[in-house]
Design a protein that fits this description.
eight-stranded mixed sheet; 12 strands; mainly beta; 184 residues; globular; 10% helix
Length: 184
């Protein structure tokens, strides 16, 4: 329904195991596009070329923002939003918010869940400043997704696309045999 913020549908898709990014629609079918609302879909792309933009969208490098110029950086273990990866380290979450208009961040919430579990994501941690760093200790073999919800003092919200992390173990490797064949 058009009166929905679609936040519940976003959470539903994530808990079912879908790999989706956050988007925000602003199509008013008029020539005033971009002038009547400050909401935006943010695409984090290395360049403003068709190929780079489409690649960034495919990789879920997106944010849904009520603020037209706020800049949010969200990484886990130095990987950008939208990434699906495995690591031997615990997830080290980092969020920074910068607004050129100097609008104040009232809250950063890190939400997390287990993909495909059918359980709604929940709050992991939060901060009332413009940045947040947090390390989440998880069990080896566990998979989680994380996304940030930033709220500014004026009520504007920014939703990031998730990052999916699986923690793997580092097993000791012992070289048992090594063979070489000389080729002519």
């Amino acid at each position: 329904p058009s009166s929905s913020s679609y936040e519940s549908r976003y959470k539903d898709a994530l808990k079912q195991g879908y790999h989706v990014g956050a988007l925000l629609d602003h199509d008013n079918h008029n020539t005033t596009f971009g002038k009547t609302a400050s909401s935006r879909t943010v695409v984090l792309s290395p360049a403003l070329t068709r190929i780079d933009l489409l690649d960034a969208i495919r990789k879920r490098r997106t944010q849904a923002s009520d603020d037209w110029n706020v800049r949010v950086t969200f990484t886990i273990n130095n990987r950008p939003l939208g990434t699906i990866f495995t690591d031997t380290a615990n997830p080290q979450i980092s969020v920074t918010v910068f607004d050129p208009d100097l609008e104040t961040t009232s809250n950063i919430v890190i939400t997390y869940g287990i993909p495909g579990s059918g359980v709604a994501p929940t709050t992991l941690t939060s901060s009332t400043t413009g940045s947040l760093t947090f390390t989440h200790s998880i069990a080896t073999g566990a998979t989680y997704y994380y996304y940030a919800v930033i709220t500014q003092l004026d009520g504007d919200k920014i939703f990031t696309a998730p990052i999916w992390v699986t923690k793997m173990s580092t097993l000791p490797v012992k070289l048992i045999e090594f063979k070489a064949n000389k080729q002519k």
